[in-house]
Design goal:
The chain has about 375 residues and is mainly alpha-helical. About 75% of the residues lie in helices and about 0% in strands.
């Protein structure tokens, strides 16, 4: 039904499915990697560092991936990225110490950066100009859905079969992406554009930087939740069913995506930013004081309205600001914001957990939304959207 309403082609639907699987794989690992690394006796700070290593690696490789995505066939690059992700994730199952886990985390970051940039720019290149907002909104929704379903399934597999089985299953999901992209008829050939510019423009799309910074400011606190929520609940002995947090997040996000399907192309950026900032603030307040399932479910719902919605809005805005000829660099820049958040969030969470204790874990996260509003206030390009 959604495909019919949005006018999605077969190629677009396959790319959405492929994107879901690689992100579900990545996000299945994220909430488990901290606990898995801890089984080798690693400290809270090192556990947080390992959680952020994939984001750090991806951040540095992302500009290369963005340029290659505009020069070479997307199918080939996406396949290579998915294979690297799958192989490194499967190898978690035979890791013998925390340092091996850290090395595999870095390798996963390389595969993730190529896969994510190629999939996003490939999908954007198939969209007509008047459907970029809603199309990238759909793509962002599938990304956010993968970020929600991955942790939910990961928790269930871990509780039933243990860490290594759950991590191996994540590797299988990444392999599905490598298979699915070969069913897309449009191979995602390179676009012709000038390479005469250098410096900053060879690394990022300057017009997309504000949107990338804002999505990074929403991603970092979300990653604190994703990486440490289970440990937080266990340590403080809070009576909640923590495994239901991410399914509730996913269901609310789907409902919001359906309700907002036309709003992505009609409402201004600031409307979404203000609404999502309020939702994110409410989510972290509830997580900090929750004592039962109702508060946790409400926090998950508000998180969908905060982080989940802004993922779609920021990606669509980045592509729209930069234009159709540089979708690879626009998406690369957007994902660099995600990378920074993915790197900063677990690292910050590990430091907060080890230094301030679990009871103070989520209160500092309230400072990120005001920072995002400040970035918007200073950005002329976003204020025009």
């Amino acid at each position: 039904m959604v495909a019919k309403e949005e006018g999605l082609s077969q190629d677009e639907r396959i790319l959405l499915a492929a994107s879901f699987f690689y992100l579900a794989s990545t996000m299945m690992v994220n909430p488990l990697i901290a606990g898995f690394t801890g089984t080798f006796g690693a400290s809270a700070s090192f556990v947080g560092l390992v959680g952020g290593l994939m984001g750090f690696c991806s951040l540095f490789i992302r500009p290369v991936a963005g340029n290659l995505a505009d020069l070479f066939t997307k199918r080939r690059l996406a396949t290579a990225g998915a294979i690297v992700m799958s192989a490194s994730t499967l190898l978690y199952g035979v890791a013998q110490n925390a340092w091996q886990v850290a090395a595999l985390r870095l390798i996963s970051g390389a595969g993730y950066s190529f896969c994510s940039v190629c999939m996003a720019s490939w999908f954007a290149s198939l969209l007509p100009r008047d459907r970029v907002g809603s199309g990238m909104g759909m793509f962002g929704m599938m990304n956010a859905l993968g970020m929600a379903v991955g942790p939910a399934v990961g928790f269930q597999v871990y509780q039933a079969f243990g860490y290594r089985a759950a991590l191996a299953f994540a590797g299988v999901l990444a392999a599905l992406t490598a298979v699915l992209v070969h069913f897309v008829r449009n191979s995602g050939r390179s676009v012709s554009r000038s390479r005469s510019h250098g410096g900053l423009k060879a690394l990022v799309a300057p017009g997309a930087i504000p949107a990338a910074v804002i999505v990074g400011l929403f991603t970092a606190p979300y990653m604190v939740v994703q990486s440490f929520l289970a440990t937080y609940v266990e340590e403080l002995r809070i009576g909640v069913q923590v495994g239901f947090f991410f399914p509730v997040y996913a269901l609310v996000l789907l409902a919001l995506r359906y309700g907002l399907k036309r709003a992505f192309d009609t409402y201004r950026f600031r409307t979404f930013l203000i609404g999502s900032s309020v939702c994110a603030t409410a989510a972290f307040c509830l997580l900090s004081i929750m004592s039962g399932d109702i508060a946790m479910f409400a926090a998950a719902a508000f998180m969908a309205g905060g982080y989940g919605v802004m993922c779609s809005v920021c990606q669509g805005t980045a592509v729209r600001v930069v234009g159709p000829d540089e979708t690879g660099m626009a998406n690369s820049t957007y994902y660099m914001g995600i990378d920074i958040g993915m790197a900063l969030g677990p690292t910050l969470g590990g430091w907060l957990y080890g230094s301030l204790g679990p009871s103070m874990l989520f209160w500092p996260c309230l400072g990120f939304a005001p920072c995002a509003l400040l970035v918007y206030a200073c950005s002329r390009s976003l204020r025009s959207q």
